[in-house]
Amino acid sequence: MAYPIPGRTLTIHEFDILVGEGPAGTVENAAAVVPNHVFEWLQEQCLAKTEGKGARWARLAQRGGRLVVQVTNYVGVIRTPGGLQIEVLPKVGRAGGVDENWARRLLIRMLSCLGPFRHIRTARAELAATRMSLLEVFVGEFLHAVSAVVKRGLRGAYVTRQGNLPFLRGKLMMSDHLRYNLVGADAFFTEHDDFSTDRPENRLIHAALNEVIAQSVSLENQRRARELRFVFSDVPPTGDVIRDIRKLQPDRSMIHYGDALAWAELILTGFSPLTGAGSRSAASLLFPMESLFEAYVAKHLERAIDPALRLKVHPATHYLVEHEAEQWFRLEPDLVVRKDGRNIMVLDTKWKLLNVIETMRKERYNLSQGDFYQLHAYGHTYLKGEGDLVLVYPKTDVFRRPLKPFMFPNAQNLRLWVLPFCLDTETLLCPANQPDQASFPMILRVHRDAASISGAR
């Protein structure tokens, strides 16, 4: 059980249990003991959930007669008011017996599949993840992007200014000049264009650098941020983040600002929509693993799919029932494969660790009956009762190969497959087609071996 040092990062995994400092006696399977003020803050987040504004990433529970906090399926970094950063990594890292760096690198690759994080330079970020926390990795990415802007020079713009100056500059505003200088003739009221770097892009970056300096615990990131902030000393930090973001306009001369501005916006808006509740709030960088896994599979499957096919994400074109000319309960599968304008396959990703060893057969390998009902509904709406349904789970040491297809008794032409997705090779492992078995459609462009079909990265 880990005892974190204040100001440092505590690393745990999904669904781990945290306990506060207390009397002798430990809670079985607890991942770490946190300071009491941190534990109280975590409780506050969980209790606020009952009011609809608290943490979705943690819940209260009891273990061995003690109150504990269990993190849920959200991964990333929880920043507590006391300065402790709790880093939550994917559970496959713990289940696979691999080190934390592997799980952290995997999380970075998954995040790069999300739209707001598409500008992550994964190779550099994965290298940095071997020596610093996830949050500091992203701070480092932001600082690298700002360094690229500084090397090319801050962009400025001409701004029209008016003022009473001791010398003539630009155009003399005669009516204002007579009003202000009728008695004293030692000044000129003028209007002139002034070249200034005080523009929304630079104000946003300056404010983001201030935020990094205030929040980062990495000495290296602190030093780099202070050096870069000096370059922006003539630019005031933004006083209204949303207003300046809305002022941003596409400009070919500002293309090199793209990555820095994307990071600045994430930093200034709290990285993600999940923030602390109550009087002691703290912004967090947290993401649901189901969404990350879905984006990861979709991105790499789209690259690997046969060119004659089309992959659609969240088509949401069918409903479960109709009632008085209204459609209720929209059916929205994760992925649909189309050919010649018709659906031929429906795939749904599930971030769950299956165990398909024979001793787990009575437990149905941890498969969910609800998931099968869901896919059954997709099959009758999107495939009209004929075709292939796929449940995609992460590949692990106890789920290495596809399962034989599941058949629906009243829909003989509708089959459900359970396939592993290899997180390392970014590959969907498809079943080898045998003469005595139902054939799996050849949907991917490269047939690598007898047990898998994979696309090029």
UniProtKB/TrEMBL annotation:
Q: Highest taxon of the source? A: Bacteria
Record InterPro entries:
McrC
Q: Name one Pfam family in it.
A: McrBC
Record's protein name = 5-methylcytosine-specific restriction enzyme subunit McrC
Q: What is the species of this protein?
A: Rhizobium aethiopicum
